[in-house]
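Q: I'm writing up a methods section and want to include an example of the input and output format. Could you take the sequence below and give the corresponding predicted structure tokens, formatted cleanly so I can copy it straight into the document?
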Amino acid sequence: MAITRRWQSGAETGHKNEFSNVVGGFVVTTANKYTGAYSFKDPTSNDYGYQTIPATRQIRVGFFLYGNSSRAAVRFEIRDAGTNQLVGLFLSTSGAISLQVLDATKDTKAGINVFEWHHFLVDVKIDNAAGWAKVYRDGIEVLSFAGNTGNADISDVKFGNGSFTGTYPCYWDDIYIDDTAGEGAAVAGPVLRFNYLTPNGNGNYSQWDGSDGNQVDNYLLVDEVPPSDADYVETAVVDEFDSYAMTTRALDVGEIFIAVIPVARVQRGDITEEIALGTRYSGTDVVGSDQVPETPFNYLWERQTVKPGGGAWDQAAVDGVEALIKSRGSY
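A: Here is the clean output for your methods example:
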């Protein structure tokens, strides 16, 4: 079985458009977060963000949730292409959490401790006979169902509330979605935290043109949080590089670095234009696959679990890594 990361976000770009789409008043906020400076917030009725993924029948979704039981509502759903529920989580006014499958309640756990941060992992297999849906809270299984979970591909994952009246926000942080096709049984997946490193110096390459009319100190044009359209770097030449020294993050006790994930907010001028993202460390570049930006801007990322030159990411590598962009396609 190969686990494939489909999406992740710690909200640290400060921009809600990391999601495929957002509905209503779903926002990025600094008011209540688990890590970093930002989290996502669904404040009122029918406010949510959702992320589309390639069709699959098995996924796991991890996230930190600051729940709210002031109004009963479905807060999380895994959906098919028709936006029908395959699996959902429902928070009641008593503070209980229920597992729903195909809009029917299958299991309930009381005293889930809302109004505080907890990690949830939802592991799902869609099958009309041998399916499952299991929910882990802080690494402990709390909800479970085995049997008919439907017969449709998973199309998207929805974070946010259902229809009700009033203002009863939940907060979401450090979200990831993995395709787990071929997984033989549900497992309590990893608890991940996403920390945002930003450009803070010149890297080895400065080949892209800055919006200020030169190629000097390009990092100053791409270091804003949230990203700004007022300044940027651009190129009309294939295979040009730009790279940037980055801020760092010291490990806390018990933590390890799993991956470094370059993220860029990109816009193309023509359908043939592409970009590749990567990292540079100790004189070695690792550049990912070519990706096609959209118009207007969208977020692209490249998850790297091995540092340039080989081996797991460690403190020295994270301290010294450069984020790298490379123009691809044709111009």
